[in-house]
Amino acid sequence: MPEHDVKTRRSAEDFPRSEHLAWKIAEIAADPVPVPAQTEAMVVNRIIDNAAVSAASVIRRPVTVGRAQAFAHRTRHGASVFGVDGTVSAEWAAWANGVAVRELDFHDTFLAAEYSHPGDNIPALVAVAQQLGVRGADLIRGIATAYEVQIDLVKGICLHQHKIDHVAHLGPSVAAGLGTMLRLDPETIYAAVGQALHLTTATRQSRKGLISSWKAFAPAWAGKVAIEAVDRAMRGEGSPAPIWEGEDGVVAWLLAGPEHTYRVPLPGPGEPKRAILDSYTKEHSAEYQSQAPIDLARRMRSRISDLDQIESVVLHTSNHTHVVIGTGSNDPQKFDPDASRETLDHSVMYIFAVALQDGTWHHERSYAPERAHQADTIDLWRKISTVEDAEWTRRYHSTDPSEKAFGARAVITLKNGDTIVDELAVADAHPLGARPFDREQYVAKFTELADGVVEAEEQQRFLDAVDNVSGLKAGALGALNVRVDPRVLDKAPTIPSGIFR
Where is the MmgE/PrpD N-terminal domain (predicted)? Predict the structure, then answer.
């Protein structure tokens, strides 16, 4: 796959549009290359995965807020909001459904120079496809492009090092995916990509300190903004350019500065889009870098007869894990039993303690306030720390899939001086893990999380529809919406009125 140099260019410099990263992205989005069978199968898996986690989150407060805002923008020929009848304007459906997908930190991930949840692309593309009566085959093409663009940007450009939130890669990928799905020309896609990047760049404070519900709303915002950017571009409006490379652009002032060169891989002309196959979903509802530590804790607990005899636990891990969800973050909130759910799912110390005690992980019970306030959990939790290990950092950034790792080595020291040591490189559900996810596991995750939320007949109807998504004709993509049992929705919290009615 060709790599492209991305660096700051002076305004007076001869820098043709054909060399702009946004133009190169537009070209691959406009390339009519067929979707490989493996890519299509994984797209179906991720549509199922998104529906699963949306079912689990459907009556949580942020999801309820997003749904209420969306239904203040009803339209007769619009898009579906997860779980309910009726249609709303596509950008608001993308907003509500994006929050539902992201709320529990429970869907797919890709980690490299940056990190990402590329499944965040799907709600926006499905919403526009429903509103415009797009065919299922074109939806799949668009999703394949969106995954490709976001994952390639994640491979080449680190955002978190400069305290920029990772959704800055999501706005451009949604715009590119929509360009493919709607068969737009490169000129239009180029303008949309530039606008989307310009408008979705924000700081990482949304994932620092006391983490709020905005963590769930942030990717939904990126999807909504990208839809609006594509709409403007389709009407002939342009964008700031060159958006990445300009003298006052993203690289110069928000990232590594005018002296730095990034290298971004992108498919060449006629090269299939396969990047979705590099990504992986979650078995557990928690930050991805805690997936392997959860499985490691479950494995190690059988070797400890009395957890009260633990003196300390040190997790040797990558720099990224150490500074984002470990003690290297220097966030005291990561040890606070009163911290938000969003904060706890970014505390590997809390997660390892609960998994070690319970031998399992649950998207609700493991975060319950009474669970976080359990005295023996607090005691164990505060004995856990992380340290950066150069080899784990190297493996985290490795481009060799066989050695790329997101796990840790745990050293548990007992009060009698004995130590118990074990390590796990990748989560059990990872493609190279002990129990990798395939269609069977995606379906099982959906049926488990939809149990008691979606009636069995409706579950099967959805699974049949998504299994045949490539064959769905224009106007038939409403079949991808899952209707939730109204008695479940009645349990959603009451939301105060806002500006939108």
Answer: 19-260
Same domain, 273 and 316: no
CB atoms within 10 A of CB 473: 10
**200 and 345 together in one domain:** no
**β-pair partners for 476:** none
Q: Which two tokens stand for residue 410?
A: 């745990």
- pLDDT at residue 399 tops 90: no
Cα 344 to Cα 65, 219, 295, 362, 403: the distances in Å are 22, 20, 17, 13, 29
Helix (H, G, I), strand (E, B) or coil at 317: strand
For residues 349 and 326, is the Cβ–Cβ distance under 8 A? yes
Average pLDDT over residues 261-271: 97
Kindly state the helix (H) or strand (E) to which residue 35 belongs, with its residue range: none
* 370 sits in which H/E element: helix 369-372
- Per the structure block, which two tokens stand in for 136? 């299922």
Q: Are residues 294 and 272 in the same domain?
A: no
Q: Which domain holds residue 353?
A: 288-424
Q: Which residues, in sequence order, are CB contacts of 102 under 8 Å at separation 6+?
A: 117, 120, 215, 216, 217, 218, 219, 220
Domain membership flag for residue 340: yes
How far is C-alpha 2 from the geometric centre of its chain's CA atoms?
25
How far from 258 is each of 5, 154, 450, CA to CA, in Å? Answer: 13, 20, 49
User: Which residue shows structure tokens 């349990």?
Assistant: 491
% of the chain residues with pLDDT over 90 = 97
Count of the separate structural domains present in the chain: 2
* Residue 227 backbone phi and psi in degrees, to 5: -60, -45
Question: What tens digit of pLDDT does each residue of 140-186 get?
Answer: 999 999 999 999 999 999 999 999 999 999 999 999 999 999 999 99
CB 414 within 8 A of CB 303: no
479 domain-assigned: no
Question: Which residue, 278, 296, 323, sits at the end of a domain?
Answer: 278
3-state secondary structure of 257: coil
The answer to whether residues 255 and 334 belong to one domain is no
| pLDDT 10s digits, 198-223 | 999 999 998 888 889 999 999 999 99
Report field, pTM of the whole predicted structure over 0.85: yes
Contacts 24+ apart (CB under 8 A), 298-303: 298/355, 298/359, 298/360, 299/422, 299/424, 300/356, 300/410, 300/412, 300/420, 300/422, 301/356, 301/357, 301/359, 303/420, 303/422
Q: For residue range 190-202, what is the model confidence (pLDDT) as tens digits?
A: 999 999 999 999 9
